Amino acid sequence: MKRNIFLRTILLAVLLLNMKAYALAGQNVEHGLELVIRCDEKDLKRGDEIPIVFRITNKGQTVYEYDDRDADRSGRMPEYVLEARQSDGAAVADPWASRESGIGGGLTRSGKIGPGESFEKTIALNRWALVKQAGRYEVVGKYLYRVGDEQASGWSGPIPFRKVAVTSTPIEIIVGKRSAEEMGEYISSLTEALKTA
Asked: Rounded distance, CA 14 to CA 9, Å?
């Protein structure tokens, strides 16, 4: 009896894996996606979370299916990438540059956008760029998605794929100053908010 349950479990796992492979095969084309980013927050100050809105539009002729999620166990969703440069062109450091990659993934829903449709996701720039000083910054976004690809090299899993990057045009954000006293008050307010969360 236990052997039958075990065999059925294995069979179910193989079937689910094949269904995922067929789903990816349907995605085995590069989609005509366009990425536009923006920052709706107009009064940013040093120390603030900097929300960047990703707007992905399907400019192609087929439906685009994507993972619609709000979190990743690794701490940031790797399909949404942000890079920032100071006004002198120097790259802003990635706070995770020396961090080893951990376990990714998380609860995922499936989303779809047809030709001409869009979806939006807000990502904190602070997860990708350590903005510590007031000033002007140039920000570029990248949206990464996968397509099934039998010829993909370097992939040893059961479903071969390759990544496709869609890059936005740069935007400028301005981060205002906070005095040491204002920063202390701001940190205290965040600490209090954490106590009640």
From this structure: 9
Alpha-carbon span 53 to 39, nearest angstrom: 6
Residue appearing with tokens 């590069």: 30
Query: What Å distances lie between residue 134 and 44, 50, 55, 131, 167, CA to CA?
Result: 9, 12, 26, 8, 26
113-154 tens-digit pLDDT: 999 999 999 999 999 999 989 999 999 999 998 876 665 555
Rg of the chain (C-alpha set) = 21
Instruction: Select from 133, 142, 195, 194 the least CA-distant residue to 168.
Output: 142
Q: Long-range contacts: 103-109, Cβ < 8 Å, 24+? A: 103/73, 103/74, 104/72, 104/73, 104/74, 104/78, 105/72, 105/73, 105/74, 106/69, 106/71, 106/72, 106/73, 107/69, 107/71, 108/67, 108/68, 108/69, 109/67, 109/68, 109/69
Give the C-alpha separation, 27 to 182, whole Å.
Answer: 50
* Structure tokens belonging to residue 164: 């496709």
**What is the value of pTM for the model shown?**
0.73
Of 65, 166, 58, 66, nearest to 115 by C-alpha is 58
* Residue 143 CA: distances (Å) to CA of 22, 39, 46, 173: 23, 16, 26, 19
Query: Do 143 and 79 meet the contact criterion of CB atoms below 8 Å apart?
Result: yes
How would you classify residue 122: left for phi > 0, otherwise alpha for psi between -120 and 50, otherwise beta?
A: beta
